[in-house]
Amino acid sequence: MQKRKIQMIVYDGSRVGAFVSALLLALVFIGALPPEDRKVNEMLKVQQQNTVALIQRQAETLTARSIALSEELTQELEQVLSTRGKTFEEINNDPELIFELETAAYSSVKAALNTNYCSGAFFIMDATVNTEIEKAETSRMGVYLRLSDLKAVSSYNQHIKYFRGMAEVARKDNVELHNRWNLEFDISNLPGYENVAGESGGRLSENCFWTERIKLQGTWEEVILVCVPVLDSHGMVRGICGLEMSDLYFSLSYPAVDSPYGNIVTAFAPVKEKKISLEKAMLGNSEGTFLKPEGELTIKEKEGYYIYASDKRKYIGNHQILKIYSASGSPFAVVSLLPETGVKKMEEERWKKWMLGSTACLMICLLVAFILSQYLKKEEKKRQLLLENELPENVEVLLRQFMERADTLTPMEQIVLCHYAEGMDIKEVAEYECISIGTARKHNTNMNRKLGTTTYEELMLYIDLFRRCGRIDQLLKREKVEK
After folding, report:
1. Whose CB has fewer CB within 10 Å in the chain, the N or C terminal residue?
2. With contact defined as beta carbons under 8 Å apart, do 152 and 252 qualify?
3. How far, in Å, CA of 294 to CA of 286, rounded?
4. 409 C-beta neighbours (distance < 10 Å), count
C-alpha cells in the first residue's frame, strides 16, 4: 500500500513537472522571460559610482595643484623682474631675461609634475623671444615637462623629457630634450588661451578651465590640459600654467573592466545637447569594445540607464556631469560604456539555456509519467483480475483446510502428491521413485487418509481446483523444497 502511494505521488509530480516545463518552454519561446536590464543596471550603477569617485578625486587634485603652481609662478616671476628692474611688457625680444624667467619657473613646474594623476606640467607666458619672426603672434615662451615611456599611472620615478623652453634650462638640470622639442609654444592649438591673456584675472579657481582632447603638436599623442591663469602683482593675466593628462596616461589609469556582458570602458568627455563628443574625449582602455575617439554618441534615456548610439554601434551605460568646463563652456561628464552586443549575446545564450533546460525537463517528466502510467495500468489490471476471480468464502475455507491437512504429510507422501499433480498414476510413481508397488500404495493410503480423500479421482479434483485458483504452487511448494 505504501509503495503504491509513493508511486502515485511520483506520477502526479511528473505530470505537474511536465505542465510547468511546457509552460516555461512556451514563455521562453515567445520571449516572455524577464530581460537582463535589472542586472545590467545594477552592475553599471556600481561601476559608475566607483569611476566617478576616482575621476572627481583626480580632477580636484589636478585643479588644486595647478592653482598652487600659478601662485608659485607669480611670486617667482615677480621676483626676477623686480631684481632686473623690468616689467612684463619688457620681456619680449630679451633672450637673457626669458632664460632667467624660465630657469626660475623650472623648479616649480618640475615639482608640479610629481603630482599624481598627470603626465606633464607646463607654464606659458605671454611673451616671445623674437617678435620679428614668422608666426610670432602665436609663439610664446615657457617651460613644458613631460613624462616619457609611461608604463604605470604613478608620476614618481618616471623619465622626464624637456618638451618646450630654452635648451640651456634643460642642460642645467641634465634633463633630456624631447625628440619633438621646440623653443616656444604655438598657442594657435591651445583653445581658451586668447580668452584669458591680457585680461583681469580674478579668482583663479573661477577662471580655471580644461581643454578638450587636443593634438600635441609635433607628436602622435593627444592630451587634455588643465589651465589656470598666471597673474602679475596687479592681478592681470600674464600667461597660463597647469597639468597635462595624456590619452596614454588616461588609458593606463582606467583599464577596461571585465563583466559577464563584455568590457566596460570609461570616458571623460564634453557633453552638449545630449551628445557626447568622442573625438574630444579621453577614453580608458577600450580593448574588445571597438570604441575609438571618433564621431559622436547620441544619448537616449532608458529606464535605469542610457543608450549611446553612434553611426555604427550602440552602447549601454551611465554618465554623470561634473562641475568641470571646457574652454568652450561645455561640461565634462564621466561615462561608463558597455557594448550592447555583449548584452544581447548574453540574453541569447540565456534564452538557449532556458530553452534546452525546459525542453529536457519536459521530456524527462513525460517519460517518467509514461513509464509509471504503464506500470500502474498493469497493476490495476492485476488488481481487477483478483477482484473478479475472488473465491467464494466456502471454497476459500475448503482450500485452506485442505492445505492444513497437506501440512501433515510426510516428505514421501508429499512427493507422491506432487507426482499425482504432474499426471502420474500409482505405478508410474513407484517406477519413478524406484520403490515397490506395495510401498507406493502404502504411501498413497496414508496420504488419502490424512487429506480426507477416498479415491484418486477425488484427489485430482482438489488438485485441479488449486490449479484453477492459481494456488497450485502453494500446495506443492513443500514437495519442491524436499526435492
Report:
1. N
2. yes
3. 13
4. 19
* The amino acid at 271: V
Q: Where are the domains of the chain?
A: 2-33+345-388, 44-251, 393-482
The secondary structure of the chain in percent helix, strand, coil, rounded to multiples of 5, reads: 50, 20, 25
Lowest mean pLDDT segment, chosen from 42-46, 54-58, 90-94: 42-46
Rounded Cα distance between 239 and 125, Å, is 4
Q: Cell 508511486 belongs to which residue? A: 7
Q: Is 186 helix (H, G, I), strand (E, B) or coil?
A: strand
pLDDT per residue over 309-364, tens digit each? Answer: 988 888 888 999 999 998 888 999 999 998 887 666 656 666 566 566 667 676 77
Residue bearing the bigger pLDDT, 472 or 68: 68
Contact 80, 233 (CB under 8 A): no
Beta strand 159-164 with 176-182 is parallel
CA-based torsion, 430, 435, 440, 441: positive or negative = positive
Question: Phi, psi (5° rounding) for residue 270?
Answer: -75, 140
Count CB atoms within 10 A of the CB of residue 462.
Answer: 21
Distance CA 433, CA 452 (A): 24
Q: What is the DSSP letter of 175?
A: P
Please report which residue ranges of 254-392 form alpha helices under DSSP H: 340-388
CATH code of 393-482, in short, is: 1.10.10.10
Round to the nearest angstrom and report the end-to-end CA distance of the chain. Answer: 35
User: Is 386's pLDDT higher than 50?
Assistant: no
In degrees and rounded to multiples of 5, residue 226 shows phi and psi of -90, 120
Single-letter code of the amino acid located at 108? S
Q: Report residue 16 CA to chain centroid gap.
A: 34
